[in-house]
Amino acid sequence: MLEAFTNIAAVGLTRIQxxxxxxxxxxxxxxxxxxxxxxxxxSHEIRTPLASITGAVTGLLEGGVIGQESRDILxxxxxxxxxxxxxxxxxxxxxxxxxxxxxxxxxxxxxxxxIIGVTIREVRDILQKHSLQIHIPEGxxxxxxxxxxxxHVVINLLENAxxxxx
Length: 166
Fold this sequence. Notes:
- The protein is elongated.
- The protein folds into 2 domains: 1-103, Signal transduction histidine kinase, dimerisation/phosphotransfer (DHp) domain (Helix Hairpins); 105-166, no CATH class.
- With 166 residues, the chain is mainly alpha-helical.
- It is 77% helix and 5% strand.
């Protein structure tokens, strides 16, 4: 009888161990899927501006005689896409620093009107061909946040909205 109880306990322990290993394998699989999705997203976010820059430069170099207006459009495209890639790279590095603990959020009281103003100046070139309405209620209280990180968030939202509407 003692041997039977010992065997049952051993089977129970084995089942618990197998359940833990199955859960670990499931988490590893989900982590791998997330890793792949993130890598695909990063690849897309880098390749898109690079393709635009390459196309514009090729157009300038191999376009023969092109008008000043076409030349200006190509140069603006190069500038905008280089800025976009720079923002993306900056965001990626900041995210990595935040997650690793190297970058600590500098939380302080911020005025949303200031954040919006700085953000609009930062992306004014991107917004040239788009309509943007801003309504900030009077008397809006200050918010406790990291000014630069919230600025990045708003820039990303505006840039994504512009990209989706093109």
